[in-house]
């Protein structure tokens, strides 16, 4: 069955790299947090002279402040960490099939697609632990429930949405592996509808791990499509860009198609490797795919739900195109999880290392000072003991001298008394 053509069935998904790394780094920061809390408690429990500036102090007021400050930093990082995910954004001209590609990857018709569903806003699909789908708009924190695709479609085309705003669709994780494995999908308005590219990049792309350009295999890349990626690559260092030559089902039956395909491939490789310089030629070749999102979606829906495939939905040679789509997903998954682990977790790891290093230094300082403090006290005590001992000895000596003197005095008196008696 086509179901077994890739897309995560029956094998460990590459996305687990990110999922596991996220779990581990969260655990590590939980440990660091406990350590920071303990250190904070220790510092707070010290008496004022121990954390003052005097001789007695074992920790300086600045260091005491540093320890307290670490708690705030760790809380901040942990907060960001729980929200970290992998993000893929889709760009291309209207009707190239962006929504259909996303639906095919999610194996469900989540985004409305087709004529009349052009929106000027960004639509993000992300996983939710809720069993009910809902929608969040920028103007409120209150999720609105989505009963049906129709309802969503009419909400999106109601005209009330601000241009370049973001709508978040919270879709049950239980229904979709990619959402469960922490990928967030972002669909953009057509790049041909007078976009404010700088705003798009600032608002939506700076945290993207992968960019997918959904191109139309029936025409070559347009300058507007290229311009956007030039801007992206001037802002982000070496963005990961995939190119989907979509609607390949329509093109493939045409004459001289092999030549056309080679032309597309050459152009795309040239664009990625020489113009954008985001990949070398060999890597670039692995970033271009000739697919049919529509066929992939239709056949997956049929596999998953038993909905019969409509007549003529699958054109001759569809298996190869569906296989190519799954191939794209395999490469995409490996790329996005590797890239997200690196970009998202590397900086947290560095900050975590710095914090534990600094904290260790502060605590070691305190430990050394408190040891010195203890030694000083012991020395003082010893000195006092020594003094007492001498005093004791002196007293001893003194008392012996006194005793001797008294003895002598007594003897003298005795002698005098005796001689006086003899004289009588
Ligand atoms: P978007 O505006 O880029 O999001 O494009 P849509 O996903 O809404 O697709 C526009 C129209 O093209 C819809 O009617 C889709 O069914 C159709 N479409 C999308 N992908 C393909 C494909 O690979 N082959 C064919 N023949 N039609 C497609």
From TrEMBL:
Signal peptide: none
Highest taxon above the source species: Eukaryota
A single GO molecular function term of this UniProt record: GTP binding
Mitochondrion is among the record's keywords: yes
Annotated localization: Mitochondrion outer membrane
Gene Ontology biological process: mitochondrial fusion; mitochondrion localization
Residue ranges that the Swiss-Prot or TrEMBL entry lists as coiled coil: 371-401
Principal place of residence: mitochondrion
Membrane topology: Multi-pass membrane protein
Listed GO CC annotations: mitochondrial outer membrane
Keywords for the protein's UniProt record, in alphabetical order: Coiled coil, GTP-binding, Hydrolase, Membrane, Mitochondrion, Mitochondrion outer membrane, Nucleotide-binding, Transmembrane, Transmembrane helix
Domain Dynamin-type G: 82-329
The protein's name: Dynamin-type G domain-containing protein
Organism: Pomacea canaliculata (Golden apple snail)
Lineage of origin: Eukaryota, Metazoa, Spiralia, Lophotrochozoa, Mollusca
